[in-house]
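YM 10:42: Nuclease SbcCD subunit C sequence, as discussed on the call
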Amino acid sequence: MRLHHLRITAFGPFGDTVEVDFDALSGAGLFLLSGATGAGKTSVLDAVCFALYGDVPGDRGSAKRLRSDQAEAGVAPEVVLEATLSGRRFRIQRSPAWERPKRRGSGMTTQQASVVVSERVDGAWRTRSTRLDEAGHLVGDLVGLNVEQFCQVAMLPQGRFQAFLRARSEDRHKLLQQLFRTGRFEDVEKWLRERRTTLRRESETHEQAVADLVSRLSEAAPPVALAGRVPDLGEVAGAARTEGWATLLLALAEDAHERARHDAAVTERAASLATADLATAERLAELQDRHAAARAELSRLDKEETQHFSSVRRLEAAGRAGRILPLIALAEGARTRSVEARAVEASARAALADHGLPADRLGDPDELARTRDQARLDAAAARALQPREEQLDAMRRKVETYAARVQLLDDELTQHETALALLPGRLERTRAQHREAVAAAAALAGAESSAADLHKRVAAAAQHAALAPQLEEAKTALVLAVEEVHLLTEQWLHLREQRIEGMAAEMAQTLVVGGGCPVCGSEHHPHPARVGGSSVDAEAERAARKAVDDAEATKLLREEQVRDLRTRLEIAELMAGTQHGRLGQQVEAADAEASRLRELAETAATLEARVAAMEQEAGELTRRRDAAKLEKQGVVSAETTERSQVAQVTAEIQALLWETDDPDLATRGQRLTALAAACDAALSAMDRAAHAHDDAARAEQSLADALRASGFADALSAAEAHLEPDDLEALGEAVRAHEAARLAARQAYDDVVLVEAAAAPAPDLVSIRGVADDTRAAAAEAVTTLTMAAGRFERLEALHAAVSAAVAAWQPVKADLDLTSELSAFVDGRSPDNRLQMRLSAYVLAYRLAQVVDAANDRLARMSDRRYSLVHTGRKGAGENRGGLSLLVRDDWSGESRDPATLSGGETFVVSLALALGLADVITQESDSGSRGDTRLDTLFVDEGFGSLDADTLDDVMDTLDSLREGGRVVGVVSHVAEMRDRIPVRLEVVKDRRGSTLRNPVGSVRS
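YM 10:58: structure's back
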């Protein structure tokens, strides 16, 4: 990685745009980034880190406030970095999230972070990514480090670059693994752990399957003592012994099954014989019972024979009477209907007389028919006109409604005409108000601008009054600061003269026996100079010079403060103007005028809407007036039509009721309908009476003929012989049952089989049935036993095969698990065989760390005057679970090794710097040799820490940093120590100002 150019805009303390040309700075190989405390030296490094990773190192990254507070409100923060990454030229343009003014309206809105990564190909920039996540992955792959590792290796930030030295083994493991890309060894560890977990779960599944099958075997086994002796499944060998145990249980079940089968066959044959004997005995007893029952039935039927013959004769007479009885009923019914018909005829004639018909017309059917027809015609005419009579009242009400509606429409037309006459005047007044509001809106901007200018003048006048005393105070402080500089300079020059005078004594202190004098070269020192009572050492001179530098810095600050206050006072005086007395009145008048115009302008929209509404109202009133006129014409026409219909219906009703006593058509229709119905009833009654008389005569003749043919003397004799259907059915059933019983009893009594059975001795059924029941129970029990034995044998046979298969499947998995567990524990550093308790990845990285330590010791020997050296140890550090990547510092003066945490501040800085340089050396060497990608660390930054070194150590450190240029690398040193400016000629200075920091380079390699 090599940096070429950096442009910073509105970022950190830089309010404007500043640029850094790293190519110009890199020409010397070593350059200094200096400036006063708080000027923004570290912010330059933050900008480089932000451009690469979108984040800044240390605690500053958690603040999430990267935009400069001194930048103008609309200026976007941006960092643009050109760098060579993995041999390719890239330009990375990043902007953090920031609050910007809204483009419309007031207030602020959040502008999201953005990035554009471009690569220079064939002389042109080509965009590679514009997504934050994608750009982060791309830069991380090209650099080979994440942001934390980059800050530990290539950009050692203020107060944090010793983190790698004091890191725990786990943290150091992560960094080295990322740097040297040894993740494949950790992948092997992870694969072995996951493989062990997978095999353990698979083995537990197999073990559980075998245990379940063994449990089921034990439950299904015969009730013998062997079934309870289940083998131990703690190991595969124990599981294998289950096969012999299962085979033995299967043999026992098979033997029990064969015994049960033999017992079932024997008991089944005995039960069959006993059942056959019982069936024979029961058959003989049944035949004997049937013959005895037939004999008793014949005796009983002989006793009932006389009653049977009487029932037969009665049944025959009831049959003849049943054929006569319907004719008797017909004759009686015909006589009754004839009498009733004559009574109905007399009643109908009486009803006709009630309707006003003369008596001479009551007996003539033809006259009655003509009267009925005429009444029906007149009733139909009345009914046809009756609906119109019923509608007559509604028609009259409709005429009244039409008249009332005409009156309402006349009133509505009057209202519309009045409103239309008043509307033009109202509309013109509203339009005038609207024009006035529009004019006020046009003049509002000018009035507000004038008021704002007056307010600015008032504020400037107030500021002028406040700044005048501040300027006087600043001038006084400047005079004091100048006097302080003069005084301290004199003191420093005085001390310097004293030190020069005592330089011989100071040089004499460095003389050793046998060593040459730095002045004359002699190895003999007979009279070395001695330190006087007023001698001054270099430390006192440096302290005095530092006090002068601090005083000069204070003087510069006071001068800048005076210039700033004088400029602000002049600006305030220009803005306030010369006439201050009437500003208050002018402001009040301008504010009042702006308020008046604003109030008028605010009513413009309302008045415009009111004008539109009134114009719309005029059109609506015109439309309603025209609609009311049309509706009135229609209502008047409908009223005229309805009145003519009322007159026509009234004339038709009066014509129909002329010369009648009926009050209305409904009464007339009802009366004529009743007359027609009475005529119909009389005609029907006369016809039915004649037919009923003829039917009665024919029924009497048919009854007399039937009585003579059936042998009955009269109808009374036939009625006495008649039986009800239930009695007749019961009597017939009794006769048939008697005859059927006699026939069946005779056939059974004479049956040869029954006769032979009756002659044989009676069997002992109780004894024979007991023997049969006992043999059948024994056979059922034997079958049950056989079924249970067969099921147990089949179940054990299936479980035996399943156990064999399960054990065969488990054995290779368990063996693979044991091997994988041992190997995983060894690779993971947890096995007793791994004496160092070191992981495989840590073992590989330990070799890399040893290379880093060797490279770091080369640097450290020169920087510590060969006192300190780093020691890589495989032992675990304090509070660590595993070793392999621990570091100790060996003190060659005492011969002891100690923890890096015991070093002083300056010692920690030197050792950490040597370790960082050694790490960069190893990475660069591997990149050059092609053993790891194209990741090169050609640029290294060191931020602060030099102030903790003494002069000699600082010389050694600077010589070491200067030697880095031989490998083509560039080292940027960040420091405010004054002595560093004398040692490093190429410098980039950060100058702080009230309006934001800027960059200044004496050699002109940086533009701002």
